[in-house]
């Protein structure tokens, strides 16, 4: 669980300085939470704040259990290492069983043969898949998704969604997402709207659709 | 060539080579990707990044499609109703909570060594080659130029190995720490890791590597010349670790200063060059005339260096160095370095 206690959070500097949270108190109990905001970057900022990237001006944040990194912020643990070495490092950092984790990566990745190659030589799509699979490897108690995961390939998308739902059951999962309706099709949960420094529960149907950029 | 044509031709080539091994197919796919990247890089004027990405994604999709039959042969594809049976990785046998920081430090050290060996093995070799060459030059100067077989009754070679090895360890830790923290700052995004852990892991890795090299050099000398070895091994380990701790503290301080004065690294280099001659590395204070010694003793690194030698060589007792100065300097620098890192982190978090 994550609890915000009278937290004040600002974003930007100088003339662009904007209030994101104004002495807000909120408890993210186990379940899936979707946060929208205007502008959309505020929700992302809030999720990264929950991950501890930023400090609040006032108030405090209490979290129980192991918290994930924000999904878009996963940077490989070394571009020059092989996939197998990266899995090894991840196991050492999060106290995971090496053989089981390696099998898990082999099962989840579309192209497990890349695990034997240096990570900087992987195709971008495979690198992205590795980041998504690594997100599900440790047994996190709080899952933070600062963007909706880009799942390419029907098989991989199905496997990832199924495992995410299984692993996040009974845990806290917080999404920052511009398109609640699209996200709602894949993941059921509670919608929140961040505006005027406060978090409010809201029905996804009343949220405005995000603008699509032509071309 | 249009993307569709390219894909179809690739499919034809691969279907014609139906029985080829997976490794060969992977090579073929890599070749196709390189070809497509090269083609789209040259032809797009003005550059159409979105189109290029789309073409590469389409190729990846085509490759997956082509791989499907092979995949089906090797293992069954998951049925939609049975998507969940992928087992999540089990946790390893639980370890005591007190071991966790040690395990994380160990994991980061192993990772650092792997990255360095994979990225730039010659650079790693140079880390050790530089002190070896410095030792060789000074050994030549002492033995053949000045005709000294020993320095204050200490054999020249172990005198230089100990001094130059320790000095290089402290210098490399100080200068490399800032770069490592900048380069590996994304590691601190992992909830288990913070910048101080990254810095300590790097310092430990370098200290470990230099300790092994110096220990091997001294052991070889003792074996070849029948020399007794260190008179007090515990004392040597203590003053050696004070050098490493000083390097860590100075590195963290330098990292903070670099944010205010980006050119400070350029200033640090000549300071270390100058310090080499006035820190007891190749000349101890007892070799200087009396009137200059009082000034030299203001340098706390000289105290550590001479006490280190006093613990190693039974025939040398430093009349100038004070143990309290050595310990006070190392611990103060470490404390200031940790405070600097905490302050830097707070500023980054609230920026």
Sum up the structure in keywords.
heterodimer; A: 215 residues; alpha/beta; five-stranded mixed sheet; three-stranded antiparallel sheet; B: 351 residues; mainly alpha; two-stranded antiparallel ribbon
Outline:
The complex is a heterodimer of chains A (215) and B (351). Chain A is α/β, with parallel strands linked by helices.
| Rg of chain B, alpha carbons | 29 Å
- Spatial order of the strands forming the largest sheet of chain A: 5-6-3-7-8
Major β-sheet strand ordering of chain B: 1-2
State the separation between the terminal residues of chain A, measured CA to CA: 41 Å
Helical content of chain A (DSSP H or I, runs of 4+):
25-40%
Assembly state here? Answer: heterodimer
Give the beta-strand count of chain B: 2
Low-confidence stretches of chain B: 75-85
Overall strand count of chain A = 8
Integer-rounded radius of gyration of chain A: 18 Å
Overall morphology of chain B: elongated
- Uncertain parts of chain A: none
Q: What is the mean pLDDT of chain B?
A: 79
Order of helices and strands of chain A: EEEHEHHHEHEHEE
The fraction of residues in strands of chain A falls at 15-25%
- Most residues in contact: chain pair: A-B, 57 and 47 residues
């Amino acid at each position: 669980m994550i609890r915000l206690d009278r937290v004040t959070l600002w974003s930007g500097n100088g003339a662009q300085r904007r209030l994101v949270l104004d002495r807000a108190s909120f408890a993210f109990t186990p379940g899936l939470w979707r946060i929208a905001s205007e502008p959309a970057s505020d929700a992302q900022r809030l999720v990264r704040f929950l991950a501890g990237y930023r400090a609040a001006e006032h108030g405090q944040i209490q979290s129980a259990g192991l918290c994930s990194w924000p999904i878009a912020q996963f940077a490989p643990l070394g571009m020059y290492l092989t996939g197998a070495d990266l899995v090894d490092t991840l196991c050492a950092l999060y106290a995971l069983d090496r053989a089981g984790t390696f099998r898990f990566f082999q099962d989840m990745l579309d192209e497990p043969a890349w695990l034997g190659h240096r990570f900087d030589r992987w195709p971008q799509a495979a690198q992205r898949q590795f980041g998504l699979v690594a997100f599900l490897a440790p047994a996190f108690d709080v899952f933070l998704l600062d963007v909706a995961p880009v799942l390419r390939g029907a098989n991989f998308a199905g496997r990832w969604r199924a495992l995410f739902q299984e692993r996040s059951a009974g845990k806290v999962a917080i999404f920052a997402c511009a398109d609640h309706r699209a996200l709602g099709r894949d993941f059921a949960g509670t919608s929140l709207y961040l505006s005027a420094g406060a978090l409010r529960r809201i029905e996804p149907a009343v949220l405005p659709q995000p603008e699509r950029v032509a071309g | 060539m249009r993307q569709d044509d390219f894909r179809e031709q690739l499919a034809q080539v691969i279907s014609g080579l139906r029985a080829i091994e997976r490794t060969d197919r992977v090579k073929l796919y890599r070749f196709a990707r390189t070809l497509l990247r090269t083609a789209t890089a040259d032809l797009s004027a003005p550059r159409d990044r979105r189109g290029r990405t789309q073409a590469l994604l389409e190729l990846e999709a085509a490759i997956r499609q082509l791989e499907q039959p092979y995949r089906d042969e090797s293992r069954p594809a998951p049925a939609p109703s049975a998507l969940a049976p992928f087992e999540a990785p089990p946790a390893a046998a639980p370890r005591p909570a007190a071991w966790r920081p040690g395990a994380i430090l160990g994991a980061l050290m192993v990772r650092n060594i792997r990255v360095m060996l994979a990225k730039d093995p010659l650079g790693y070799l140079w880390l050790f080659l530089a002190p070896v060459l410095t030792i060789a030059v000074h050994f030549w100067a002492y033995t053949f130029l000045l005709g000294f077989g020993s320095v204050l009754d200490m054999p020249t070679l172990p005198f230089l190995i100990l001094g130059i090895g320790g000095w290089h360890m402290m210098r490399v830790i100080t200068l490399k720490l800032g770069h490592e923290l900048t380069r590996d700052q994304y590691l601190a995004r992992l909830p288990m890791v913070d910048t101080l852990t990254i810095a300590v892991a790097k310092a430990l890795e370098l200290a470990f590597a230099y300790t092994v090299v110096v220990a091997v050099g001294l052991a070889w000398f003792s074996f070849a010349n029948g020399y007794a070895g260190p008179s007090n091994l515990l004392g040597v380990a203590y003053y050696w670790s004070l050098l490493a701790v000083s390097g860590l503290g100075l590195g963290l301080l330098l990292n903070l200063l670099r944010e205010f004065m980006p050119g400070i690294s350029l200033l640090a280099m000549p300071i270390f060059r100058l310090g080499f001659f006035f820190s007891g590395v190749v000349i101890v204070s007892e070799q200087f005339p009396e009137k200059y010694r009082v000034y030299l003793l203001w340098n706390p690194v000289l105290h550590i260096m001479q006490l280190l030698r006093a613990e190693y060589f039974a025939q040398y007792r430093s009349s100038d160095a004070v143990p309290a100065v050595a310990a006070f300097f190392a611990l103060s620098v470490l404390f200031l370095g940790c405070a600097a890192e905490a302050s830097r982190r707070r500023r980054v978090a609230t920026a």
